[in-house]
DNA sequence: GCAAGGTC
């Protein structure tokens, strides 16, 4: 039996080969410079295996000539126009390879990622292979991580391709094309005639672009329409030495009522307190506390951190991570998974970092007993592990170095222990009102030593004894004001898109770049932080669609989310 | 000249 295995990308074909062959294989080049064909015997199923890959989707979709040109038809006719499926220009060589390999095989085993797009790519592979060999048996290997036991199990117990999932993706592809092309042409033609500012530029519409823009506009309007309100609170503090020999420190006691928006009520309470401000300590509690180490790293988290900590645009972070992946320094950078597989082998990866001058000593500590299993998040895309370094990279510069360092420190932090400390809470009453002060002492920094992006600091509260009484240093009624929300940052926008199902790990950064390139969204810097504001055009587009009064506005995320998750 | 999703 000859089995042709087809993975979604070259790196997976190689990994599968190394596992199934035990390292004994031969390989052949193909016309595509990234793709190789690997040959070996697999005695477990008495079969000869050939493993190759595609490179993402094989086919593209577009309208025929009658509808492809912008002025060839009324945009609304694009909803009924035929849509052609064809092998893309770059896919021709890959298709040729698949066909010639399929002719020699008895069975096609599909090894695309085990997510919905993978099911669709698998159906493309199936169609091409069947066109070359009509009676080829088609099976699907199911695996959730590139781990030897799972890969062998998948090879020995293949299942069927899930055609319903592939069809759902096909429907989404066609809908996105029809809606995107029709609305874009309609908007562009209408607005170019009406507004001088958009002359010569495309006013695109996309089912991900518009909810993305919608988030920016929504926040902008919240800021614009914000009205500050005054509030009042009792400020209570005591100055006393931090320890028996120490200098005086001021301890602030926070009001349990936080603050009141009714001035008269706050004033009445304050009058009562100040008439006899003797303060009595009712309870002193010291308890152990932890600061949890971070979760394993997903693409979305990498982009948020990159934007917030490294000041790099989400798209720039992803591009760098992809380059480092292609150089063999990082695992696959597009993942939604924030849990390592229980069988994941950490030690060889930690060992590779032991030579680093900056974090090598910490890695050695993990090897010598400080290791602790990473926390498990709630997400698993069943295709890729969390992002982690696969090799030590010593010679990087600039932004590549920053991104690699962040990912590596994050990985080591995940394999370390939570930081440990103790928290003291001092409860007091004054004039019948309750106040409290808290203090923090860090006992063991643990993961914080390798992960400077997290801060955990607090001050020790001076000693207080239950039942003691004191005269506060300050007891005042103070006024504050509610403050306006901030404009969105890129990190905020990535979070909103992720939570609302707009785009994927691989495309979120692209959509943000698109709404900026189309000049729907403008970047504005304030104190070193980049904020996103809508342009007049951006606001106008969103308000226009909102005023149509659709039950699910195209500027809001509901519609897109439902298109993605419908089964 | 148009979308979003894969991928190098």
From TrEMBL:
<dbReference type="InterPro" id="IPR013825">
    <property type="entry name" value="Topo_IA_cen_sub2"/>
</dbReference>
<comment type="similarity">
    <text>Belongs to the type IA topoisomerase family.</text>
</comment>
<dbReference type="GO" id="GO:0006281">
    <property type="term" value="P:DNA repair"/>
</dbReference>
<dbReference type="InterPro" id="IPR013497">
    <property type="entry name" value="Topo_IA_cen"/>
</dbReference>
<keyword id="KW-0238">DNA-binding</keyword>
<dbReference type="Pfam" id="PF01751">
    <property type="entry name" value="Toprim"/>
</dbReference>
<feature type="domain" description="Toprim">
    <location>
        <begin position="2"/>
        <end position="144"/>
    </location>
</feature>
<dbReference type="InterPro" id="IPR013826">
    <property type="entry name" value="Topo_IA_cen_sub3"/>
</dbReference>
<comment type="function">
    <text>Introduces a single-strand break via transesterification at a target site in duplex DNA. Releases the supercoiling and torsional tension of DNA introduced during the DNA replication and transcription by transiently cleaving and rejoining one strand of the DNA duplex. The scissile phosphodiester is attacked by the catalytic tyrosine of the enzyme, resulting in the formation of a DNA-(5'-phosphotyrosyl)-enzyme intermediate and the expulsion of a 3'-OH DNA strand.</text>
</comment>
<feature type="domain" description="Topo IA-type catalytic">
    <location>
        <begin position="162"/>
        <end position="567"/>
    </location>
</feature>
<dbReference type="InterPro" id="IPR000380">
    <property type="entry name" value="Topo_IA"/>
</dbReference>
<dbReference type="InterPro" id="IPR013824">
    <property type="entry name" value="Topo_IA_cen_sub1"/>
</dbReference>
<dbReference type="GO" id="GO:0006265">
    <property type="term" value="P:DNA topological change"/>
</dbReference>
<protein>
    <recommendedName>
        <fullName>DNA topoisomerase</fullName>
        <ecNumber>5.6.2.1</ecNumber>
    </recommendedName>
</protein>
<dbReference type="GO" id="GO:0003917">
    <property type="term" value="F:DNA topoisomerase type I (single strand cut, ATP-independent) activity"/>
</dbReference>
<dbReference type="InterPro" id="IPR003601">
    <property type="entry name" value="Topo_IA_2"/>
</dbReference>
<dbReference type="GO" id="GO:0005634">
    <property type="term" value="C:nucleus"/>
</dbReference>
<dbReference type="InterPro" id="IPR034144">
    <property type="entry name" value="TOPRIM_TopoIII"/>
</dbReference>
<feature type="region of interest" description="Disordered">
    <location>
        <begin position="370"/>
        <end position="395"/>
    </location>
</feature>
<keyword id="KW-0799">Topoisomerase</keyword>
<dbReference type="InterPro" id="IPR006171">
    <property type="entry name" value="TOPRIM_dom"/>
</dbReference>
<keyword id="KW-0413">Isomerase</keyword>
<dbReference type="InterPro" id="IPR023405">
    <property type="entry name" value="Topo_IA_core_domain"/>
</dbReference>
<dbReference type="GO" id="GO:0031422">
    <property type="term" value="C:RecQ family helicase-topoisomerase III complex"/>
</dbReference>
<dbReference type="GO" id="GO:0003677">
    <property type="term" value="F:DNA binding"/>
</dbReference>
<dbReference type="GO" id="GO:0006310">
    <property type="term" value="P:DNA recombination"/>
</dbReference>
<dbReference type="InterPro" id="IPR003602">
    <property type="entry name" value="Topo_IA_DNA-bd_dom"/>
</dbReference>
<dbReference type="Pfam" id="PF01131">
    <property type="entry name" value="Topoisom_bac"/>
</dbReference>
